Amino acid sequence: MGEPGKRFAIHGVTCFSKMKMFLSALTMACIAKALSGTYMMSMLTQIERQFNIPTSVVGFISGSFEIGNLLLIVFVSYFGTKLHRPIMIGAGCMVMGLGCFLISLPHFLMGRYEYEKTILPSSNLSSNSFLCLGNRSQTLMPTPDPGDCEKEIKSLMWIYVLVGNLIRGIGETPIMPLGISYIEDFAKSENSPLYVGILEAGKIFGPLIGLLLASFCAKIYVDTGSVNTDDLTITPTDTRWVGAWWVGFLICAGVNVLTSIPFFFLPNTLAKEGLEDNADVTTSDREEKHQGQAKKEKRAITKDFLPFMKSLFCNPIYVLYLLVSVLQINSFTTTFVFLPKYLEQQYGKSTAEIVFLIGICNLPPVIIGYLIGGLVMKKFKFTAKKAAYVAFCLSLTEWLLLFLNFLWTCDNFPVAGLTTSYEHERFQQPLYVENKILANCNMRCNCLTKTWDPVCGDNGIAYMSACLAGCEKSVGTGINMVFQNCSCIQFSGNSSAVLGLCNKGPDCTIQLQYFFITSVIGSFIYSLSAIPGYMVLLRCIKSKEKSLGVGLHAFFTRVFAGIPGPIYFGALIDRTCLHWGNQKCGKPGACRMYDINNFRSIFIGFPAALKGSSFLPAICILILLRKFQLPEETDSSETEFAEMELTEKESKCMDVPRSPESDNDRELKTRL
């Protein structure tokens, strides 16, 4: 009676451990990690304003994810194949959830967000200290206590975000390298491109959810529920607005923990796809063979590591592919991280609106492109050579399309003293000049020149504060406050102003539409080229070195692209700042306004130069693929000779001997 029960249990495990079950779980994990990663990128502007830090520090926070990933990527990629891969992936998802929770902690540990302002929201306006008063001896805002100032500087709550993002990077480490190697080991070779395409689509579907979540949270004030939003003097389009960024991180933490559960019930080994019902090999036999093989592999770990490393670095196609990836990911990362900031400044929209548009316009064509790319690779069974040519042509087309973004532009916000003069002709001034902030119309007002609390006059020009606009009277409360008798504003008999910067107008909205049309086409072409390009990486290295090769690829792209890219690009963006916000102690904080012309040149031109330089090593890869014959393009009887032809240069620099197990495998393979 015990035998049928045992047979049923074995059958249940076999059904549960099929490749499609693992693929479903891995796709959900990819969605979860992409959800939290995209949400993090979308909220960087809100985090910058919350902690009042420059863009270069924000870039360092963004790069901390890659630092955490870097700490373990090579060792997880190589040693992970010797351990229980599904359990390691599940543990990584749990750690990612912990990192997301840690990122949200500062909201609960620090006080309410206090934005830079000169206007008090109180309805009692008997003391109009923020307006133009000629004989005033007091400052606009009370001087903070030095002890409180020092305490605020030492708090450095943004470090929680930095550490949480680093832990999130550590947790993400095993998901893709071990997941892809698992698929490559147990999936049919013709199904592998389709499965990778499904994973890539999942990695884009996650960002779609993440961007929609970010758009929703950015509309909600950061301290909602604990402050009266009617008293706010800023709107979501204001550069001082901070949305409820912490809410999304709590959601991401829960999602990552939930996606980790299925991996703890998946087996370490599967039957090769298509051979699940082979009667000659039972499940117990496969487990015994796997255990015996695992013991041999563990003994050979240290002996095979260095030979595998040398074999990869003596593979010219693999090395050139690393160079192409580093240059292109530098271009992509710098663009993706700061895209919301650029669109906000360029077109005068709120973070919530920009993030929503990115989600609904850019990501669906990317998902479609990934799926089409995988299906085409499966149907036509592209070789590595054909895939390389397709990826090169598509990538070149997308690069040329990128230059159209120089056409879809808007002017700087017209701010008196920063980008235009007080004489109302809107003569553009390229740089911030301190002595230009004051003019004859506000010289008598005794205004602070570094305070950022802008108002928009009836003449279509904004002023850094109501005082600098020469306003003497205010009516109303909160965001509906109106300033009157403004000496610097003369327009059709009116001299009033309202809170906030002036809108850029309908022409700028049309330019934004053109930008997204170009971006949609470019995103679709980019995604079409991604799968063929990635197949070149997988097919140009030997099967035993595949996991380590993928891990080293991730390692180098993080060291030379993911980590330094946002930092140096953020520093370049900081150089275009026209006006810095102030911390309570007088130190500069987050940038309030950029010179959009210089910002545009850096944001579009620099990534275009990086991507353009990547085509030189890509051409070298195409030339090498003509000379070498890859293993996948030969019959099984000729595989050994093909590998020897591909690695002709490798053999000359392989002075570290392989382990006896590797030599035995090579001898057996040659005999077969």
Q: What this model shows, in words?
A:
The structure is a single chain. The chain has 672 residues and is mostly helical. The chain folds into 2 domains: 482 residues, Growth Hormone, Chain: A, CATH 1.20.1250.20; 92 residues, no CATH class. The chain has 22 helices and 7 strands. A 5-stranded antiparallel beta sheet has the order 2-1-5-4-3, with no helix packed on it. It has a two-stranded antiparallel ribbon with strand order 6-7. Strand 3 and strand 4 form a beta hairpin. Helix 2 packs antiparallel against helix 10, helix 3 crosses helix 4 and helix 14 runs parallel beside helix 16. The longest helix has 34 residues. The radius of gyration is 29 Å and the shape is elongated. The two termini are 43 Å apart. This is Solute carrier organic anion transporter family member. Keywords: Cell membrane, Disulfide bond, Ion transport, Membrane, Transmembrane, Transmembrane helix, Transport. InterPro entries: Kazal_dom, Kazal_dom_sf, MFS_dom, MFS_trans_sf, OATP. It is found in: Cell membrane. It is a multi-pass membrane protein.
